[in-house]
């Protein structure tokens, strides 16, 4: 069988394809983003996302195959995101993968998107040391977990309401930033001072998160103080998020001593978050494992690398959509 897995990702608003070897070398990666499609709505508009996937999925796969000079004979499998995600978006990638699998006579593996993020820190180079505490912070999820080996995952905590990325995007919208707001929020915050003491929800209460109260306080603050500098509001909001994330990771590492801290998901692209985690890990003598920046946000290379884990274990989860899917499955 071939030496590459073709990864396909379409769970949200990016259509992505990548070709990855078993050791995590990325031969080619193509991402067709839909920012222009959703910008006017300040969030992902599900029906438009599905339609944009329909238009871009085949060209994206053709391009990645051409970029790597690959043929179907080079493929050991196709790994495609089966969930969690938007039903219409998932169906486009899954049906495309199913068709290609039949046509090319290649097995199709339904991959958990969250497992993909976990593997992103091992792309290009193996970085993750076990046992590890995992902080997964994306648009859809805020998860603390512990891994004792690849695929051996125990949940420690998740969010009661909004994810961190969601809070970034919703507060970003209040500040007039384009969607997704993460990168623009970081740039704005860098020009301000954390003058406003926003709440740090549940900071001393275990390993669960809550971010919707923080978002509401920012909204109330902006109503009461319409002349506050947006840079300072952004800096104060980011400071509150970072304080919470640092406190939770610190507690997880204290309660479950581990060799490494792995921070993945779209928000792990944030420079201030990376700096904060690096300083904390240095103090604790824990190794910090981060994906290269381009693999922090959604991509198909991480899906392909996760698919290698399934293939090695002889697992072939069916390529059917699972809108909700825990990280442990
Ligand atoms: O992992 P991801 O690409 O998609 C999901 O699986 O949800 O994460 C997207 C999230 C968005 O909320 C976006 O605002 C945030 O990641 N994000 C960032 C940065 N880049 C993306 N947040 C903070 N700083 C960034 N540089
Ligand atoms: Zn994601």
UniProtKB/TrEMBL annotation:
Domain of life of the native organism: Bacteria
Cofactor requirements of the protein: Fe(2+)
Domain Gcp-like: 25-304
Predominant location: cytoplasm
EC number: 2.3.1.234
Family of this protein: Belongs to the KAE1 / TsaD family.
Function: Required for the formation of a threonylcarbamoyl group on adenosine at position 37 (t(6)A37) in tRNAs that read codons beginning with adenine. Is involved in the transfer of the threonylcarbamoyl moiety of threonylcarbamoyl-AMP (TC-AMP) to the N6 group of A37, together with TsaE and TsaB. TsaD likely plays a direct catalytic role in this reaction.
Official protein name in the record: tRNA N6-adenosine threonylcarbamoyltransferase
Species the sequence originates in: Caulobacter ginsengisoli
Gene: tsaD
């Amino acid at each position: 069988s071939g030496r590459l897995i073709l990864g396909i990702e379409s769970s949200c608003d990016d259509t992505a394809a990548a070709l990855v070897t078993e050791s995590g070398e990325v031969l080619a990666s193509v991402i067709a983003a839909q920012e222009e499609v959703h910008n006017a709505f300040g969030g992902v508009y599900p029906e438009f996302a599905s339609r944009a996937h329909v238009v871009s999925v085949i060209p994206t796969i053709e391009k990645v195959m051409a970029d790597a000079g690959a043929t179907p004979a080079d493929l050991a499998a196709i790994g495609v995101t089966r969930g969690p995600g938007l039903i219409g978006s998932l169906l486009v990638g899954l049906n495309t993968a199913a068709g290609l699998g039949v046509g090319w006579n290649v097995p199709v593996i339904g991959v958990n998107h969250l497992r993909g993020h976990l593997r992103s820190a091992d792309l290009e180079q193996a970085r993750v040391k076990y046992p590890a505490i995992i902080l997964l912070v994306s648009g859809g999820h805020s998860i603390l977990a512990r891994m004792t080996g690849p695929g051996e995952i125990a949940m420690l905590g998740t969010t009661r309401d909004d994810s961190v990325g969601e809070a970034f995007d919703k507060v970003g919208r209040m500040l007039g930033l384009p969607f997704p707001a993460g990168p623009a929020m970081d740039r704005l915050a860098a020009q301000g001072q954390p003058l406003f003491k926003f709440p740090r929800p549940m900071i001393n209460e275990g390993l669960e998160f809550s971010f919707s109260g923080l978002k509401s306080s920012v909204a109330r603050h902006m109503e009461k103080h319409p002349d506050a500098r947006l840079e300072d509001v952004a800096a104060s909001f980011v400071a509150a998020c970072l304080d919470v994330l640092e406190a939770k990771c610190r507690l997880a590492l204290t309660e479950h001593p581990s060799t490494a801290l792995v921070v993945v998901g779209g928000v792990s692209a944030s420079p201030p978050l990376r700096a904060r985690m690096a300083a904390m890990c240095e103090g604790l003598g824990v190794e910090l494992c981060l994906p290269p920046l381009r693999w922090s946000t959604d991509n198909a290379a991480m899906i392909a690398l996760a698919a290698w884990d399934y293939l090695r274990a002889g697992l072939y989860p069916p390529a059917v959509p699972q809108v909700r899917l825990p990280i442990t499955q």
